[in-house]
Amino acid sequence: MIHPRFGLAVCALAISILPACAGLPRGAAMRSEINLNQSEAGDYAYYEVTRATLPRIASWPSVNPERSDGWPKASAGSIGQVIQPGDTVAVRIFDSSENSLLTPAGARDSNLGEMMVSPSGSVFIPYVGNVKISGMSPQKAREAIQYQLGLVAPSAQVQLALTEGLQNSVNIVSGVSAPGVYPLKSRNVTVLGAIGVAGGVASGTRNPRVMIQRGSALYAKSLNTLYDTPSLNALVHPGDTLIVEEDDRYFLALGAAGQEELVYFQKDTISALEAVTLMGGLMDSRADPEGVLILREYPADMVGMGAGRPEKQRVVFSIDLTSAEGLFSAQNMQIMPEDVVLATESAVGSLQVALALLGATVGLANQVN
């Protein structure tokens, strides 16, 4: 039995513990503490994410964007081959005339061997000179050479075989089972088709991202997006370089969530609601669903008082997941690379810790008595 005076002492201890709940060990800050710090320091901006504020937030510049010039439009190309400078053509001439200038004595054909198409797009043919064949199909090039030879030897016929060079190939350098230079046998090869020819994406690649280097332009798109949207499966161009690599964009998950770690992007864009799911959801016993915070820091040159700019470098966005307004807003709030998504602690969780501590104290008192 507990002595009355000792019981009173325990109650007094309990009363003293309850106001100090905020000082108990916790895994994250409370939403009220973030608001209080903002009002005292004023060195960051605080915004509730609602239907009213979303258009303004969406107009601000992207933070930590990857370099990309968008994505090329998908279109249909020609099925046949097209000759480019740097390609090699093998030309054989047949002439049945007795005194042909084009064939050795007693022979009916002459092999001119392999010739590289010059930067100007032409090849040299004896007794004819330079014949421009770039931009033509092998069949059209054969006809062009035969026409020129026909002015010298009307009975001559031409056979032509094409071997594609670097300017008529696509270079797939990483992220596939068989990297290498692959000749374009037609102008109708798509990005996914080229990756398939190279053996497909290497197994174990996390959220593969496809990049196309085309001259000075760089295009990037998630492989899953290409799978899901066939209209984005663009054609590769001669001389393209394809790179497949893991998407290294991430956000940082902290607080009363299922996991606290770097969370990599699973697709091109991630909403705040998807981010909560990717971080394992909110912990039922600890999290405050009214206080999911997104911490973001903008470069100094993006900050200003004008339209389309945040007013301060450091910005905290607050989302209330207990209302339909908050859920819809979270679905439309875009997470930027290197954002911090913080699931704040609930005051109820701290109270539970305090009560558990009180219970342990009472239990200790019972043991003493």
TrEMBL record:
GO terms for molecular function: polysaccharide transmembrane transporter activity. InterPro entries: Poly_export (IPR049712), Poly_export_N (IPR003715). Residues 1-22 form the signal peptide. Keywords: Signal. The keyword Signal applies. Pfam families: Poly_export. It comes from the Bacteria. Residues 82-160 form the Polysaccharide export protein N-terminal domain. This is Polysaccharide export protein. The lineage of its organism: Bacteria, Pseudomonadati, Pseudomonadota, Alphaproteobacteria, Rhodobacterales.
